[in-house]
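ok here's DNA repair protein RadA:
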Amino acid sequence: MAKSRVQFICQNCGSVHQRWAGKCDACGEWNTLVEEGTSGGIGSGPANTRNARKGRAVVLTTLSGDIEDAPRIISGIGELDRATGGGFVRGSALLVGGDPGIGKSTLLTQAAAALASKGHRIVYVSGEEAVAQIRLRAQRLGVASAPVELAAETNVEDILATIADGKRPDLVILDSIQTLWTDLADSAPGTVTQVRAAAQAMIRYAKSTGAAIVLVGHVTKEGQIAGPRVVEHMVDGVLYFEGEGGHHYRILRTVKNRFGPTDEIGVFEMSDKGLREVSNPSELFLGERHAKSPGAAVFAGMEGTRPVLVEIQALVAPSSLGTPRRAVVGWDGARLSMVLAVLEAHCGVRFGTHDVYLNVAGGYRISEPAADLAVAAALVSSLTGLALPADCVYFGEISLSGAVRPVAHAQQRLKEAEKLGFGSAVLPLGSEELAGGIGAGAFQPTELADLVARIAGSRRSRVDDEE
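and the structure:
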C-alpha cells in the first residue's frame, strides 16, 4: 500500500509545496496554501500507470497531409456560435466562466434546449442546483418541452457511468467544475487536486468518445476563474461571460480557442425570458448618446472579426488636491497616464491641476491601443468645453513621441461607422487603402498636435461665426 504523504497546494496557481508558508512562491498570493494528502491517488496516478504496463510505440507522421475541418455542433444561437468559432467542436472541452448570477446557466440551458430540439443527445449535469430548479428555469425560458436529459450529481465516476449508458451524448454540460469530486483524490471538493482530477477525467472522456464537454467555472473577485489556472491549459477553449449588474447586456468573450479566433465576442441582452442575441452591438452601446456634450468621442474598435462602435466619455475638472485624481472605467489606467503625458509634453495641453475621469459607455471594456486617439480627443474636448462633431469616429494609436500610428482593419471600422450614419472620421495617416465612403474625406493627422490644433480651431471658427 502506498505511503500517504502531505503536500501543500496553492489554490490560486496549483503549485505544490512541501511545507506550509504564508505566501506562495510561484504566484505571490497570500494564504492560498492548503494541506492535501496524497496516497497513491491523483498525485501518483501516472506513476502507477507506468508501473502497471510498458509504453507502446505510436505512429509518427509529417506536417503535410489532408486537413479536415473540425466537426462542429451548431447550436443555432448566432452569438454563441460566433464566440465558439462556429459551434461546439466534437471531442473538445470548453470552460465557461463568469460572475455569480451573470447568466451562465441561463445561456447553457438555452443552448442545450436548442441542440436537443435538433435531435442531439444533450446531458445537463448540475452540482449546484436540484433538478426542480433547472426545470423552473426551463419553464421561465419557454424551453421545458426540449428533450434535455437532466441529473443532479457531483461524483465524477457516477456521472461517467450515467452518460455511458445508451447512445453517446453529443454535448455534456457540467455546472460547475468546482462542485465535482472523484474517488482518485482524498481532498475536499473545490480544492485544486479535486478540480484538476475531475477535469482530467471529463476531458479524457471527451477525447476518447468524441462528445463535447462544457465545464462551468466560478470567477473570483479578481476576475479569474476560481481553482487552478492549469484547468485553463487543459481545456480547448475558455469563454468569459461578462456584464455589469446595472446594465441589461452581457458579453461572451473568447480568451482561448484551439479551433478558432481568440478575440471574438458574442453580445446578449438579458430579459425575463432569458438571453436575447444582439446582432448589432454598436447600436446598443450608442443607444443613449448625447451628441452635443463635450468630452465624448466615438471609438471604432474591433473585437475579433467584428467592428464595434462605442462612446468614450471624459471629464476634466479643476482639482483642489495636491495630486489630482485619475479614475478610469473600462480602459487601462496606465495607458491613460501615457496619453496625458503625451498631450502635456508634445501638445502643450496641461492637466496637472485637473482631475481626469474616463469612462467607456455601457460598461464595455476596451483592450486595444487603437482607442488612444479617441481618448485624446475626448480629453481635449472636455478641457476646452468644445463638443466634438457628432458624426465623427476616431481610432489610432499614439506613440510616446506624439506620432499617430496606423492600426489594422481600418476599412472594416469605417464601414461599420458608415452603416450607422457617421459621415466623417479621424484616423492615422498611412492606414490601409481606403475606398470611397467616409474614408475618402477623413482627417488623417500624422502628429497628435494636429488633432489638438483642429479641435482648438473649431473654437476660433465658432467665435468668427458669432461675430
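+1. The CA atoms of residues 137 and 188 lie 29 Å apart.
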